[in-house]
Amino acid sequence: MIYFDNSATTKIDDSVLKTYLKVSEEIMGNPSSLHGLGDASTGLLQQARKQIAELLNTSMEEIYFTSGGTEGDNWAVKGTAIEKRKFGKHLITTAIEHPAVKESMEQLKMLGFDITYLPVNKEGVVSVKALKKELRSDTTLVSIMAVNNEIGSIQPLEEIGEVLKAYPKVHFHVDAVQAIGKIPLDLSTHSRIDIATFSGHKFHAPRGTGFMYLKKGKKLAPLLNGGGQESGKRSGTENVAGITAMSKALRLVVTDSKEKQSRQLEIKEYLMDKLASYAKVTLFSTKEGAPHILCFALRGIRGEVMVHAFEKKGIYISTTSACSSRSQTSGSTLSAMHVPENIATSAVRVSLNDTNTIEEAQQFIKEFDGLYRQFRDIH
Prior knowledge:
Blueprint: E1 2-3, H1 14-26, H2 36-55, E2 63-66, H3 69-83, E3 90-94, H4 99-110, E4 114-118, H5 128-134, E5 139-143, H6 157-164, E6 171-175, E7 195-199, E8 210-214, H7 240-254, H8 257-275, E9 281-283, E10 293-298, H9 303-311, E11 315-316, H10 332-336, H11 341-344, E12 347-351, H12 358-378
């Protein structure tokens, strides 16, 4: 089996799974309980928080545990809107955001908020000049993803941060779900990023785990109310085993990350060069994008047909986004890039991780060549 669908989810690392099982079996206490078992759980949570903070060059007080990227994005968008509504109701995002951000924005729009969607160019990159033009006195949030989940385009976060330094009251949220371990991400004290959201199952941690970075001093209304966990900002009994395992997975993914990224980029460029030689292939990703995502189309063949054809060969890829695959619609990113509908619906995505090899890529091209000839003969 060749697994090239890592942007949808990654396989949990064996050592991370062992940590999860060990904590699940041995540490049964609720962190909110006053007895020794509760204290043991609290200790593990704080160890995980400390390790994550150190790995990302932040402080423990800036790390909050969530259930993943969807919750984090919802919390960042709605929490900012609620917390800062007395200062304004204008929010800015892009036309290529994950549905967790876009649909949160649309829900707020129904409640009277004004939403601006920034366009992107033909490579899926937002214009800093366009952002600067749209900023207003009543703007309270700018939410822009670090790496696009469909084509891998990297957004100019540093340049955006420079613009936003003149707007200190505007929260800057970054969906970093596809960025961790793939591109440099500065969350140090001098960075303009106020909020960043992460999902554990994108870096070999258990599903249902995630965390948020919230810069010290920045206020965010809770999305989940209840028992007051996570300093009163995110209620709900903590997933101690999952969080502990996630902190270990993060340590593993950022260790030697430059070397891992280099190997993934080598595989991606090999695939791009080979695919570009086929007359009916359209490449949407660029070599300047994230090292792990490659989106392309075999014109005339719908994406889901390609996905199932590869599956029969033991190779797993996806259409442009796992979150919208079953709706069988073209990716929102490609639509925002003004890719014609008949080509966009043929798009598929190959997404890599640090365990994939060049030999797997070579096998992929071999099978693609056979499918290309087969589809050519049919049509």
